[in-house]
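Action item from last week, closing it out:
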Amino acid sequence: MFLQSIARANNIKDENMNLIHGELLLVPITCGCSGNGNYSVANISQLIKQGESYYY
């Protein structure tokens, strides 16, 4: 389901397609509003494996 939502957000027809280095990839997230409505909040985590980098 998660891969399908990423594919839809980026108009990708084949979920197994390789991305081009530097290409923008939109990742849909679930967020909520604060009690007073002044800001939105999303809890996001990303597992970085040994040898990988957060920055590309």
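Closing note: The first strand starts at residue 32 and ends at 33.
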